[in-house]
């Protein structure tokens, strides 16, 4: 009986030890799996930052050459899972916005918008009742409206698509919040409003040329009285001020881009 009880106590003790060992092993396995998962997540995050930095630098270089369409693959085999999906989504969104802007600039170039107030061109166009000038204004206005619609479409589609991304919910929500914030603080809206004002001022100057007698002297316009000269110069000065505002916004955008990279 004594031996049986002793054996029973020993067996019970061993069972308890085995249970404790099992719990310890499971705990250690859980810890190592958790640690490995976190470590892998951290490695993916570091690779994500590296890939995005490289891609955005290339995108920045290409974006400055607005005469050519963008050519940058968004896929990168160094990424996987959520970070791969997020990287491709973010890059595509910015590429779509940059390409929309560059396409708009190419349309302005095609319309020869930078030559609109050229005195020699206007002097020649006067003989044709300013038909070329009217055509240029129409093309620029159409391009501006199309650009504004394209911008709105890109953002609306992105908001829908971000909700459909198969990534971690926290990451998805964070990305959506940043998307909304980026859109709210987008300087493209301010740029577009300034450019609209430049178009309006340019049309007012054209109307003055239509209405009043003037002669060309080199690259300048001479009117018959001082009031007309003053009004024309005020409009031209306003256009120069608007252009200075655009240049300043572009510098700020470039600085922010450099910091974000």
Describe the SSE topology:
Elements: H1 2-64, H2 81-110, H3 119-126, H4 131-164, H5 169-184, H6 187-211, E1 214-217, E2 220-223, H7 226-260
Antiparallel strand pairs: 1-2
Low-confidence parts: 1-14, 24-39, 256-261
Number of beta-strand segments: 2
Number of helices: 7
- Structural class assignment: mainly alpha
Rough outline: elongated
Mean pLDDT, as a whole number? 82
Strand content: under 5%
Secondary-structure element sequence?
HHHHHHEEH
Radius of gyration: 32 Å
Query: Sheet bearing the most strands, described?
Result: 2 strands, antiparallel
**Which percent bin holds the helix content?**
over 70%
Spatial order of the strands forming the largest sheet: 1-2
Quote the distance from N terminus to C terminus: 80 Å
Describe the 3D structure.
- With 261 residues, the protein is mostly helical.
- The protein contains 7 helices and 2 strands; from the N terminus they run ααααααββα.
- It has helices at 2-64, 81-110, 119-126, 131-164, 169-184, 187-211, 226-260, and strands spanning 214-217, 220-223.
- The chain has a two-stranded antiparallel ribbon.
- β1 and β2 (220-223) form a beta hairpin.
- α1 packs parallel to α2 (81-110), α2 packs antiparallel against α4 and α4 (131-164) runs antiparallel to α5 (169-184).
- The longest helix has 63 residues, at 2-64.
- Mean pLDDT is 82; it is low at 1-14, 24-39 and 256-261.
């Amino acid at each position: 009986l004594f031996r049986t009880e002793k054996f029973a106590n020993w067996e019970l003790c061993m069972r308890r030890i085995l249970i404790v060992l099992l719990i310890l092993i499971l705990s250690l396995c859980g810890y190592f799996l958790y640690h490995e998962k976190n470590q892998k997540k951290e490695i993916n995050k570091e690779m994500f930052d590296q890939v995005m930095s490289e891609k955005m630098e290339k995108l920045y270089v290409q974006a400055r050459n607005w005469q050519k369409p963008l050519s940058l693959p968004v896929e990168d085999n160094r990424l996987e899972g959520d970070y791969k999906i997020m990287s491709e989504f973010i890059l595509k969104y910015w590429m779509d916005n940059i390409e929309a802007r560059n396409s708009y600039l190419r349309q302005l170039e095609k319309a020869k918008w930078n030559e609109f107030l050229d005195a020699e061109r206007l002097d020649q166009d006067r003989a044709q009742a300013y038909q070329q000038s009217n055509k240029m204004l129409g093309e620029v206005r159409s391009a501006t409206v199309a650009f504004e619609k394209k911008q709105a479409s890109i953002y609306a589609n992105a908001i829908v698509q971000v909700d459909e991304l198969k990534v971690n919910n926290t990451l998805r929500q964070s990305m959506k919040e940043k998307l909304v914030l980026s859109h709210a603080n987008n300087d493209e809206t301010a740029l577009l409003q300034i450019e609209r004002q430049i178009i309006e001022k340019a049309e007012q100057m054209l109307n003055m040329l239509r209405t009043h007698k003037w002669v060309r002297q080199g690259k300048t316009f001479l009117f018959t009285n001082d009031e007309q000269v003053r009004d024309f110069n005020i409009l031209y000065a306003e256009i120069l001020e608007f252009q200075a505002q655009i240049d300043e916004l572009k510098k700020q955008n470039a600085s922010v881009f450099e910091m974000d990279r």
